[in-house]
Amino acid sequence: MKGDRHVPRAYPSATEDNYFRLKESYDLELAVAVARSYLHAAIAHPKDTIVDGWSISCLPSTGAGRRLFTINVGAVEGAYMSTIIENGVVDGYIMTVYVDRRTLEAASGQPLAELERRFENDVFFDNATHAMFRGRAVSLSTEVFASNAAFPAGLPWERPAAALADQLLSESKCLYSRYHNQWLADDVLRAN
Questions:
Q1: pLDDT 10s per residue in the chain (192 long)?
Q2: How far apart are CA 155 and CA 167, in angstroms?
Q3: Are 55 and 176 in contact (CB under 8 A)?
Q4: 138 beta partners
Q5: CA-CA distance, 184 to 23, in Å (whole number)?
Q6: For the stretch 10-34, what's the b/e string if a residue is b when 16 or more beta carbons lie within 10 angstroms of its beta carbon?
Q7: 3-class DSSP state for residue 30?
Q8: 57: exposed, middle or buried (C-beta count within 10 Å: 0-12, 13-18, 19+)?
Q9: Contact of 154 with 19, CB cutoff 8 Å
Q10: Are 181 and 54 in contact (CB under 8 A)?
Q11: What is the phi/psi pair of residue 100, to 5°?
Q12: How far is Cα 68 from Cα 72, in angstroms, rounded to an integer?
């Protein structure tokens, strides 16, 4: 019924149409591999915490429509994958994950400045500014390819991603569940 306030709004990023657009227009297999690598590293029990603890949106409008997905953990983003556009055409993909800075420095045995210098050609490091990160997080971004959907060897991002995700899950339920795309989530959680 028109104007019925009880009908939930269907956000595009939560629809099967967006899932099919991702599948038809981009590298779905690579997107699934990237999302799966983050969930495997950062979320201890992804099937038990889906929607309430974390969610995945498909082709969200965030980032000027260049994102393939965003995984939200608690009240903020945990990871996302976006396109590299060159002359109006998709020319590649970038994955970004948020990690706990102290855990990253402890796991690598190096301060952040040294990690930035060591991986300057492969990884972009940035301080995460969202208030919910409370100054404890940095984002790591790298280009991903079909043959390699991960960060460079020697950058221990998994444990720091898990440390931050654990903190975020303990602080808040997922605030973005209304954007959750069940079709993409099913692909990501499906056993290989």
A1: 455 555 556 799 999 999 999 999 999 999 999 999 999 999 999 999 999 999 999 999 876 659 999 999 999 999 999 999 888 888 899 999 999 999 999 999 999 999 999 999 999 999 998 888 888 999 999 999 876 778 998 999 999 999 999 999 999 999 999 999 999 999 999 975
A2: 21
A3: yes
A4: 99, 127
A5: 10
A6: ebebbbeebbeebbeebbbebbbbb
A7: helix
A8: buried
A9: no
A10: no
A11: -75, 120
A12: 13
What's the start-to-end Cα distance of the chain, in Å?
42
Question: How far is residue 163's CA from residue 43's CA, in Å, rounded to a whole number?
Answer: 9
Kindly write down the DSSP assignment for every residue of 87-127, as one continuous string.
TTEEEEEEEEEEEEHHHHHHHHTS-HHHHHHHTTTT-EEEE
**Distance of alpha carbon 178 from alpha carbon 192, whole angstroms:** 27
Nearest-10 crossing angle of helices 28-42, 182-189: 70
